[in-house]
Amino acid sequence: MGWQAGTGLGTTGEGIVTPVESKLRPRGMGLAFKGFKEKTEQAKAEARRRGEVVSDDEERPAARKGRKAAKAQEDRADAWKKPKKVKTRIEHKTYEQIIAEAGEEAPHAGLGQIIDATGATPREVSSLADVSMASWTPTTDPMRLPEVRHNLRLITEACKGDLDGLAREARALEERKKWVRQEDARLRKKVEEEAELITRLQQVNLVVDNISAQAREMASMYEASLEPFSANFEKLLGQFPKEFDGYRLDEVVVGAIAPVVRRMLAQWQPLEDPTAFTQLFRLWRGALKMSVVEEKPPDQIQVYGSSTLLTGVYRERPMSPYESLLWNAWLPKIRSAINNDWSPDDPQPAVRLYEAWSSFLPPFVRDNFFDQLVLPKVSKAVGDWNSRSSKVSLQTLVFPWLPHVGLRLEEVLGDARRKVKSLLRGWAVIEGMPKDLAVWKDVFDVGDWDTMLLKYVVPKLGSRLREDFRIDPRNQDMDPLQDVMAWESLLRPSIISQLLETEFFPKWLDVLHIWLIQPSPSFEEVARWYSFWKGTFSENIQAMPGIAQGFTRGLQLMNKAIELGPDAPTQLPRPDHRTPLSTSATPVPKAKAPKARPARTQEITFRSIVEDYASSHNLLFMPTGRAHEKSRMPLFRVSPTADGKGGLLVYIVDDAVWAPDGDDYRAVSLENMVLRATREK
Q: What's the rounded Cα separation, in Å, for the pair 171 and 193?
């Protein structure tokens, strides 16, 4: 029939693999005597193949026979006894407990995918109950009743599912009732709040009506005033702050006072009475919702004549009512006053006007005030200023605006600096030091200030001493020296020292030598003359090393003349102005430390190092106003004199000093620069 060894019977091989076997029972043994199992090995294998569980007792009865002999004897003794009834204790739960425990069904600890392999073909089932139903077979055991047990289990599970559903529904109803109670409380509270809000808005409406009535009354009065509004504004802002912000009641405030303000501004003289309205505006700062004055962000600009601000992303921000009032009512009046009635020669009226209103102006109004009204007129006045024909000084035009304008005035300051340089370029020493020139010292950078004085002032001072100053003990003219000493506070001490060492002491020592070689000179008169000249200079000048050495040379000359006595006219040597004094000479007093420069001027550059080094060797480092042809760098003259002649021409580039070497320039050391500047005349 086509059967092959190792396969099951049937066309599809679902039958048994081995033929039916029988197991011989021992002689004289009844059914199940002493636990004898009649199932054959073939039956056990088929059972395992179908997925049935085969107990170990059936597989290894011989091995367990001795161990379970006593147990089998006891079981046979109890087999004919009536089983004891076990009372099942039933626990009852209340309705509230069932509802409290109800909720989302906990997920079953899943067994995963269940495969029924008891049949010929494996199949997937939803639960183990389906497996037990599929493997059910009729039985004659009256105690098992699998059909009844199965039906009872189904009924029980159905009842439990219904009960769980009802419990969950009851739980949902309880939650719903709780939410309804909360919602009812919330809505009742909201109704109360709305009722209170309606009451407050009615009160606000009454105050607004009073303000409107006052505005109409003020509009019909001959002399308008803003004082009557104060009480209602304080009430509106003090009693209803939330409504004031939430409903933008500042529009009501500004709308009420705008007609009155326009009428009052028409009669206002801003330059004569700059503080008008400021007291009321200060009291109404909260009612007008003045924003805190802040600096304008760098990416925010005000379009001139526009009512909006444009930021970097071109996002428009409308004006507040107060800003609109200033832009449309206050600013036109100020514009008319500044353009028609104000002169930059008298800046104080406009300065007082800005100081009175600066805390009330938003940034874009303040910028318009300076950029469109004040600075154009100041800039024009600075450009037209002339030291000989102008009635006011240059600082009168510029300085009053420095605390308020800041960096915005930098362009005007640039013009003013050029005016100062132009003034010094055409200045003569006999005119005296320009009035109030010292106030510009802090406006210039230290390097620019020193460069300007070295270029335009120092050569003229040196020429004044060299050409006009004479030492005459009988009829001394001090004017040239006083013209030079008037610059003591503006020039560096080293420059003053070099001027005196170069132009004063050679003349003074020559006259002293001539006096000492005269027959029978009066040393008492010479001592008084020496004390007179030393007292002519301030203590700071006397403390300079070069000045102290000059007077020390005079003392040495006087002592030498006393030693020589009658031989002085023939043996007293001429004074040497260049040779440094020996260490055994009269001690030189220490110079006072120069005043510390402001913090903003403490920038150290290579040029400043070169200047200080030249100054320490009694040399001037002066700009020539020319540039080197190839490098196009500015040329400087390092010279022992202030007349702009002789010395060494150099320029500075790449932190090096470049000096002439034949037809070209090459880098030299600072020592070489000093040596060549001293040697070349």
A: 33
Contact, 551 vs 586, CB < 8 A? no
pLDDT in tens, 209-268: 888 887 888 777 777 778 888 888 888 888 888 887 888 888 888 888 888 888 888 889
The tokens for 164 are: 């769980």
Nearest CA-CA partner of 236 in 261, 260, 214: 214
Contact yes or no for 544/501 (Cβ under 8 A): no
CA-based nearest residue to 213, from 256, 162, 255? 256
Cα→Cα distances 636→149, 605, 611, Å? 121, 16, 10
| 607 Cβ contact list (under 8 Å, min separation 6) | 447, 652
Strand order in the sheet with 648-653: 620-627, 634-639, 648-653, 656-661, 664-668
Helical spans, DSSP H, in 66-142: 69-79, 95-101, 128-134
Q: Where are the domains of the chain?
A: 1-67+113-136, 268-426, 458-571, 603-679
CB 480 within 8 A of CB 469: yes
Which amino acid appears at position 6 of this protein? G
pLDDT tens digits, one per residue of 632-642: 888 888 887 76
pLDDT band at 672 (very low <50, low <70, confident <90, very high): confident
Instruction: State whether residue 302 is helix, strand or coil.
Output: strand
The stretches of 491-639 forming alpha helices (DSSP H) are 493-499, 505-516, 523-536, 539-542, 545-564, 568-571, 606-616
d(CA 159, CA 155): 6
Please list, residue by residue across 642-669, b when 16 or more beta carbons sit within 10 angstroms of its beta carbon and e when fewer do: bbbeebbbbbbeeeebbbeeeeebeebe
**CA–CA dist 149, 169 (Å, integer):** 30
